[in-house]
UniProtKB/TrEMBL annotation:
Residues 119-248 form the CRAL-TRIO domain. It comes from Carlito syrichta (Philippine tarsier). This is Alpha-tocopherol transfer protein-like isoform X2. InterPro entries: CRAL-TRIO_dom (IPR001251), CRAL-TRIO_dom_sf (IPR036865), CRAL/TRIO_N_dom (IPR011074), CRAL/TRIO_N_dom_sf (IPR036273). One of its GO terms (molecular function) is phosphatidylinositol bisphosphate binding. GO terms for cellular component: membrane. Residues 8-19 have a biased composition (Polar residues). It comes from the Eukaryota. Residues 1-31 are annotated as: Disordered.
Length: 308
């Protein structure tokens, strides 16, 4: 018998090991801060993030996930958990709830989240439906440019547009500089060249939005000078009255396509069905998990579809 086969013969199988003999799960990758000193200061002031307590806070959230949701298939990496802590200003309970809601949404909307990777959305990317401008605004925020007129319904369903938007947001928040919150925190929505009927529709919808959200919508019509009071011309392409050259969609498409492996790892692995522990944790008293899940997702989908 060869040395190799002998080694295989004498090595104990996993099944024969007792629970105490099993090796501990591998530790998640350690965190390396990439924030500038100015952003560290900003995070301390606005998010209550203290660098000296950061890893302690991450570990506390990790322990809560393992204790309260042991079957939740989620990354426990420091950088991933920090997204949720920052989004809820390091309130452990609210960060945990956001993490659970994030996974509940992903499991409840498979037509958007399953197989979410750049190569699956080449038609949307090629259409020029969306891109990210190369320069940030004066506050350091990235500018996502969405052009609904580039969507031809006969080419692909509307869910592909939503998938492309989500793909872009996921890519953006991989950078710490954009992690004011997760899901990503929208600072403002500027609408230009909207048809007159859109203003009427928005006037009907606006009372149902939270005041903070409603106040972040700006309808400029064809008045690009109004747009330039918020977004300076030097960061805008000439299509929007800017001086930054023609709108370039190819560069951002290349960034997304180069991230294929990351998205395959995160969104293209089999996920367990939404288990009763996860479902019941999000329920108002008296509702079944299926009913709550259907109702909440129907509301989200309706809001997204109405944007088109």
């Amino acid at each position: 018998m060869s040395e190799e086969s002998d080694s295989l013969r004498t090595s104990p199988s996993v099944a024969s090991l007792s629970e105490n003999d099993l090796p501990p799960p591998p530790e998640p990758p350690g965190y390396v801060c990439s924030l500038t000193e100015d952003l560290v200061t900003k995070a301390r002031e606005e998010l209550q993030e203290k660098p000296e307590w950061r890893l302690r806070d991450v570990q506390a959230l990790r322990d809560m996930v393992r204790k309260e949701y042991p079957n939740l298939s989620t990354s426990l990496d420091d950088a991933f958990l920090l997204r949720f802590l920052r989004a809820r200003k390091f309130d452990y309970d609210r960060a945990l709830q956001l993490l659970v809601n994030y996974h509940s949404c992903r499991r409840s909307w498979p037509e958007v989240f399953n197989n979410l990777k750049p190569s699956a959305l080449k038609d949307v990317l090629a259409s020029g439906f969306l891109t990210v401008l190369p320069h940030t605004d004066p506050r350091g925020c990235h500018v996502l440019c969405i052009r609904p007129d580039r969507w031809i319904p006969s080419n692909y369903p509307i869910t592909e547009n939503i998938r492309a938007i989500y793909l872009t947001l996921e890519k953006l928040i991989q950078s710490e500089e954009t992690q004011d919150g997760f899901p990503i925190r929208i600072k403002a929505v500027h609408v230009v060249n909207e048809p007159r009927i859109f203003k009427g529709i928005f006037a009907i919808i606006k009372p149902f939005l939270k005041e903070k959200i409603a106040n972040r919508f700006f309808l400029h019509g064809s008045d690009l000078s109004s747009l330039h009071t918020s977004l300076p011309r030097n960061i805008l392409p000439k299509e929007y009255g800017g001086t930054a050259g023609e709108l370039d969609t190819a560069t951002w498409n290349a960034v997304l396509l180069a991230s294929e492996d990351d998205f395959v790892k995160e969104f293209c692995q089999p996920l367990p069905a939404c288990d009763s522990i996860l479902g019941q944790a999000l329920l108002p008293e008296g509702l079944t998990s299926d009913a709550q899940c259907d109702d909440s997702m129907r509301a989200v989908k309706s809001q997204l579809y109405s944007c088109y």
